[in-house]
Amino acid sequence: MTTGTGTFTQHATFTIERDYPAPPARLFRAWAEPEAKARWFACHDDWRSEGHQLDFRAGGSERLDTYPSAGDPSGDNVHAYRAHYYDVVPDERIVYAYEMYLGDKRMSVSLATVLFEPRAGGTRMTFTEQLVMFDDRWDAAGRELGTREGLENLARELARA
Amino acid sequence: MRAPEYVTLLSSVSARVTLNQLLNQSALDRVFQALADPTRRTIVERLSRGPASVSELAAPLDMSLPAVLQHLQLLEASGLVESEKTGRVRTCSINRKTLQAAEHWIARRRAAWERKFDRLGAYLAEEEKK
User: What are A49's strand-pairing partners?
Assistant: First the structure.
């Protein structure tokens, strides 16, 4: 890496709220059971996911490797997700930290909090992520990812039009 | 030829939106490129604390003034930095708007979660039927 001067870090926090017509227990199970979680978490549109492992408990961990497309499983392109669970309150709360790697570069570290609250007819799920991104690694990765994503989106939109 | 079809395609809203995204993406690329160099990051970091003259920016850097000016040119081209000449002094400042484009990255992270939570909803609905 370069010298100490000019090393960038960027912090951000965002929250996503969703209401689902299902009781908190069912929503919680969708996060807690490996088969259920894989159904919505470990698939990535037309990307290929591999090796989803989930040990869901405080102190447990989770991992997932995702490749941008089936034809291009090169090591540089693997998006690796590595998580560690800290706090699990059944049907109420999940707190975990996760890292995202692009190849062997750590791109970000996040703390995620998921809350489940009963609401009339279902559950309000609140997901809050506090993250730090290592901007000095954006140059290559951002360019490569951004360009490919942009082109893929364009192709998809044109196909649809 | 199939020219009319092509025109229809380009004028469709979805295609326009995506072309816009592509254009924004190349602007973002210039920002990434500008930030890829440690000297330019030092300059941006200094400017993020407030405007500075070219000579103030050059003082802590171990390079010639023309070399510093070259870096500043690239930073201006990326849109990260703006400069204004008053008399004989050129003052540089950070362009907040462009810096915010970097936050685009975080918007993408958020969008990825939104898609996952859509799938979570679809999964729950599917289970409900069983």
Answer: A66
Query: Averaged in consecutive runs of 10 residues, what is the pLDDT profile of chain B (130 residues)?
Result: 34 36 55 77 81 93 92 87 90 74 66 88 89
The closest alpha carbon to A80, from A55, A58, A105, A57, belongs to: A105
Tell if the pTM clears 0.90, that is, is over it. no
Q: What are phi and psi of A10, to 5 degrees?
A: -130, 130
A83, A89, A92, A97: CA torsion to nearest 10: -20
Distance CA A161, CA B58 (A): 52
Minimum CA–CA partner of B40 in chain A: A6
Question: Which residues have a Cβ under 8 Å from the Cβ of A64 and sit 6 or more positions away?
Answer: A41, A42, A49, A50, A51, A52, A53, A80, A81
Task: Give the span between the Cα atoms of B31 and A147, in whole angstroms.
Answer: 14
- Which pair of tokens denotes residue A70? 């089936």
Strand order in the sheet with B52-53: B52-53, B89-94, B81-86
Is A40 within 8 Å of B15 when comparing Cβ atoms? no
CB contact under 8 A, A143 and B32: yes
Report the SS3 class of residue A85: strand
